[in-house]
Amino acid sequence: MAEKLSIFPVGTSVFKDIRVNKQKYVDKTMYIPLLKEYGKILFFARPRRFGKSLAISTMDSYFSGDKDLFKGLAVEEILNSPDFVPRPVIRLLMSTPSGADSKVELQNNIIEELTANAERHKVTPRGTNAASVFVNLIRDVSKANSNKKVVLLIDEYDAPVIMVIQAPALSKIEGLLEDTREVMSNFYRKIKDLDDYLDFVFIAGVTKFSRMGVFSALNNLKDISLLPEFASFVGFTQEELENNFRPFIKQTADKFQLSEPELLAKTQEYYNGFSFDGKTRLYNPQSTLYFFQDMEFNNYWIESGSNTLIREMIKDKNLTVDQFSGLQVTRDFVSSPGEIDSTPPEGFLYQAGYLTLREDPDSEISYSLDYPNFEVRSSMAKLFMHNVFRSELRAGDVSIQLKKHFDAGNISDFVGDFHRLFSSITYDDHTAGVRLNLFLAIVKNYRSPLTKLIDQSIGPNNRNELIDIISDYIMNKNYKNVIDDLLKESPGYEEIRLKFNESFYRANMQSFLLGAGLKVVAELHNNLGRSDLVVESKGKQYVIEIKVVPKSSQAEDASENAINQIFGKGYGSPFPNPVLVGLGISEENRNIDACVYVENDQAVRLDMPKLSDKVLKAFNASRQATHPEKTPKPKEPKPSGAKPREPKPSGSKPKEPKPSGPKPKEPKPSGAKPSGAKSSGPKPKEPKPSGPKP
Fold first, then answer.
1. How far apart, in Å, are the Cα atoms of 625 and each of 426, 477, 483, 591, 629?
2. Beta carbons within 8 Å of 230's beta carbon, 6+ residues apart
3. Residue 651 CB-half CA count within 13 A
4. Which residues have C-beta within 8 Å of that of residue 124, sequence separation ≥ 6?
5. pLDDT score at 634
6. pLDDT digits (tens, 9 = 90+) for 404-425
7. Residues 288-312: pLDDT tens digits?
8. CB 673 within 8 A of CB 654
9. What average pLDDT score do residues 564-573 get?
């Protein structure tokens, strides 16, 4: 008989309850005896909902000597050895005191948590503040247990500070963050004074706060977060998943009508990929348990916590979903990524678990960052869409429509979706994002006047730090004209501007697609180049190439050039029967002005809509406010909605469109060659490949 799915310990991290109720437990106990070999005071950082609390609860039962709970587990023999000596355990869950809106309330909340431990050991709490109650508790518990040294386990040590940073109401209270840091620093510094009473100390949290008194005061503290020996202390390896969840793998595979290897491959793509040493790949425990319980591919981990701070960061810094993938970071960054309220975006996202480590094979001192898996990447894309639409409901509606149209293969509909999506991006968001990319490209890669000025003032070694500061000013309207003038004087400005406009649209499209739950790869490489986007839906691939031009009148040629590039560079060659989509986007309208697609060897040009009257008015109003000299005169808009000249269904020959430009020549594809079917639309021009002849 199949095991019941109700045995999954979702929503609990109490080791004793899991064992007594015979719920699923992946044995990690073999790590506990190893911990003490690495030092007396250990620090361990992992993202939220990754199993830290269960690990600490397990240590509590182990050091307390609850032998019955460990039957059949790796440490059973050690616990039954005559050499094993139980210790009194103080376990502090610091998320309990978090959420205080004043220094006094925080002190009282910590004292309540200490009092609960005092009652457990039948001692009376005493002291005038949290720090003094803490010191007396450790001493009194040791005395009450025949002077045995105490094991101190601190879970979520950073929770009070993180709560102040992330909770909107608390973050607005002036001085609360520094007051909270002061209380927690005074509290943790007392650990140093208790050395004679402590046998072992384990401190766990999400981030490595330097201003918390833990790392500056505790000279003998050992950070084991990056050690390969503890890379899989929490989280599930592929082997652990297959060994512990075999009955559920079969049940879930049967539900989806997949073979077990097919289900495992899809599960790995969705939930595997977290790494804390650059090598070992792990499943998030929460996502894994919920997945096998519900037997549904959902975004479980990301939806279990607050995303307020990330939403604000996306909005304030115009972040795109894929800008951090492949970003190189040093080992120093990984071990100390900075204070969570002041670190750069990659530092915050890494500490929060949205980005994970990948080993750099060419370096012993650096790593690269990437999203762990599809769950996290698509969830980040949804947050990006919420920012674009300023509405979670609206973003959800768009996601549903976009996926529906891709799944059905309705090319004109999903191109129309993209057109409406770009219309939703405000003028300021668009120009800030493009301006920031331009600025970074020019000062980092070109000898512009701005770069020379920076180097002359502070030297090239300090340039990056100043660039970060100036990047923030770029978002400030008061500095826009100054930055624009500096950029325009830079060599290669026109070329760079078009390049980064393309980057802007590609990044937005990728975010929309990922947010809709579609599988998408940006800049897929082959021997001749790299395609902008490849989207997979219902087993079909869509190869999308974007060309940005200054004027709307140039967009039709741009869309044909995009198709020519797909053929010439062989972007569609890896796929059996891809749909090739060329988009012409103009800076004038900041939207898709032309589209040509090739499906089943038939080329079709779509009639793209103009901006609707409502959108046009808002667009011009925004332009007038920031650049009155560039505001175009209103034109009579055509009806909105992408109205393509549709081919007939079921493979019949499409209706002959009327090309608006000269008829291009037949391309000579280097990928999948058309089988001789006549084109019903414009035939793309013969490409001039920049690489070697195929």
1. 13, 11, 18, 20, 10
2. 31, 44, 224
3. 2
4. 118, 140
5. 41
6. 999 999 998 989 888 888 877 6
7. 999 999 999 988 887 766 667 777 7
8. no
9. 91
Rounded Cα distance between 5 and 339, Å, is 41
Strand bridging mode 366-370 / 530-537: unpaired
Half-sphere exposure of 57 (CA within 13 A, CB side): 16
**The pair of three-digit structure tokens given for residue 441, joined into one six-digit string:** 């490209």
Distance CA 677, CA 664 (A): 16
Question: And the tokens for 154?
Answer: 């601190």
> What amino acid occupies position 368?
S
In single-letter form, the type of residue at position 505 comes to Y
| Beta strand residue intervals within 319-437, DSSP E | 328-330, 356-359, 366-370
**Using one digit for the tens of pLDDT, what is the confidence trace for 301-345?**
877 666 677 777 777 766 777 777 778 888 778 877 777 667 778
Q: Which residues contact 353 (CB under 8 A, 6 or more apart)?
A: 46, 47, 48, 50, 206, 274, 301, 372, 376
pTM value? 0.72
Cα–Cα distance between 472 and 98 in angstroms, integer? 31
3-state secondary structure of 681: coil
Q: What is the pLDDT of residue 1?
A: 36
User: Is the Cβ–Cβ distance between 5 and 49 less than 8 Å?
Assistant: no
Handedness of CA 90, 91, 94, 97 (dihedral sign): negative
Strand (E) positions, 572-650? 579-586, 591-599, 602-606
How many residues does the structure list for the chain? Answer: 694
Long-range contacts of 594-600 (CB under 8 A, 24+ apart): 594/555, 594/556, 594/558, 594/559, 595/415, 595/559, 596/559, 596/560, 596/562, 596/563, 596/681, 596/682, 596/684, 597/411, 597/415, 597/563, 598/563, 598/674, 598/684, 599/411, 599/647, 600/651, 600/677
Using alpha carbons only, what angle is made at residue 298 by residues 297 and 304, rounded to the nearest 5 degrees? 145
Q: Name residue 480's amino acid.
A: K
Nearest to 276 by CA among 355, 374, 364: 355
As to burial, measured by CB atoms within 10 angstroms (0-12 exposed, 13-18 middle, 19+ buried), residue 220 is: exposed
DSSP 3-state assignment of 221? strand
Residue 274 in 3-state DSSP? strand
Q: How far apart are CA 526 and CA 694, in angstroms?
A: 12
* Residue 684 identity (one-letter amino acid): P
pLDDT at 66: 96
Reading the block at residue 553, the tokens are: 């009148």
